[in-house]
Specification:
Elements (H helix, E strand, L loop, with lengths): L2 E7 L16 E2 L2 E2 H11 L8 E5 L3 H8 L5 E5 L6 H8 L8 E6 L7 H8 L6 E8 L8 E4 L5 E5 L6 H4 L3 E10 H9 L15 H7 L3 E7 L2 H4 L5 H21 L3 E2 L5 E9 L4 E2 L3 E9 L4 E2 L3 E8 L4 E2 L4 E7 L4 E2 L4 E2 L3 E3 L4 E9 L2 E2 L4 E9 L1 E3 L4 E2 L4 E3 L9 E3 L4 E2 L4 E3 L2 E3 L4 E2 L4 E2 L8 E2 L20
The protein binds uridine-diphosphate-N-acetylglucosamine (UD1) and calcium ion (CA).
The site of uridine-diphosphate-N-acetylglucosamine has 27 residues, from strand 1, helix 3 and strand 10.
Length: about 450
Amino acid sequence: MKLDVIILAAGQGTRMKSSKPKVLHELAGKPMLTHVIDTAMGLSVNAAGKIHVIYGHGGEQVKKTLGHLKDVEWAEQTEQLGTGHAVQQAMPGLSKDCIALILYGDVPLIQQQTLENLIATVNDTQMGLLTTLLDNPSGYGRIIRDKNNIVQKIVEHKDATKAELLVNEVNTGIMAVKSSHLQAWLNKLNNNNVQGEYYLTDIIEMAVNDDVVVVGTITNDEVEVTGINDKVQLQEMERAYQGRQAERLMREGVSMADASRFDLRGSCEVGQDVSLDINVVMEGKIKLGNRVKIGPNVLLKDIEIHDDVVVLANSVLEQAIIGSGSQIGPFARIRPDTILAENTRIGNFVEIKKTTVGKGSKISHLSYIGDSELGSGVNIGAGTITCNYDGANKFKTIIGDNAFIGSDTQLVAPVKVGKGATIGAGSTITRDTPDEKLTLSRNKQITIDSWKKPVKTKK
Ligand code: UD1
Ligand code: CA
């Protein structure tokens, strides 16, 4: 049987106090709704089914942000008449005879394994319901079980009797059910309740009446079923999620100075004996080799760092490959399309963009190197600038193996420095320079013998 996933995301989210729809608020750098969609897409049972997102408030923004996703169908709920009504909007688009799994755009951390276990309970005579136990169940729908512990119905907080309010097993809202059953029960929903809403939860009692057993699975992982309604909860979930990611990395062998001061907004693959100091932020796709050491306050974005690299404090590295044994920083900035070979040194206040640097080359202080190709064994003196831009176009600088560029040199691109060439300090190089020779452009130094130090005039 196919699995179709229905994600409810039509709610307004007023408590976010934001012009952005609730489900677009980001957790670990990714909209909450995308977390849910990604989890749904990752379900091993989801081979051929579709994902249906019910949108409403701010729907245009939601579709603009996520509308490009393949295999996602969008169903609008123009008026929020309740969770049952929301699910109804997806029904016309559902695959024939599928299992419908109902998820929520504001419950972002639901785990794949939990859902797979829930789906496994569904057949012609059973449906699955995910519940949890809360010390303070206030506000939630209560799970009412009979003497044999079989689920009988869900009673919403506002409709509950005093006795029912004492129940601390609550509805997470997540359920899995055959689509034919779901359709039949949704057809019978009414809004005769305190809130005047079409409650999805009313289908539980209908299932029982139709001799479909409701298999209530209790999860004791509160994080995976927590719904986010405001920015306080969003921050709490962010920390919970980051804590889990940190724990996973530490279990894979990463040493962390402080797991509570670590953020991964993307994915991270690690070798052995990686160590991270405090306030390391990783975004996008990160790959760290063996024995990589990252210092404090470092931002890494879409980066591949090979074995034995040391990144010192306050460096920012983005879309680059860092060869093994290299040392970067402190205060270095590596910009996109930079490739550093093994054993390079990039020191403080150095900015590198779209540049390849050969083995063992050094750019140790205060430089801008852009659109360049550096051979191996190159030494770039402090204050060297590649003038790669004439205000309209960008040009390349090519520096041969073992060249030595004196401090405070401007290399006006397009320009080539020969192999083994030396450039005298303070030069402005506008033409290609030959291999193995000293080239410099500098006014001759003079001393004015008649010069006298000025003296302050008295008033
Ligand atoms: C619902 C459940 C309750 C459960 C709780 C868990 C019902 C009737 N009640 O209550 O048993 O304990 O969730 O959090 O289902 N939504 C729509 N369209 C609508 C209404 C809601 O898309 O017309 C979406 C909301 O955006 C939200 C979710 O459904 O993501 C839950 O809606 P909400 O109104 O928060 O339900 P609760 O009253 O909390
Ligand atoms: Ca809610």
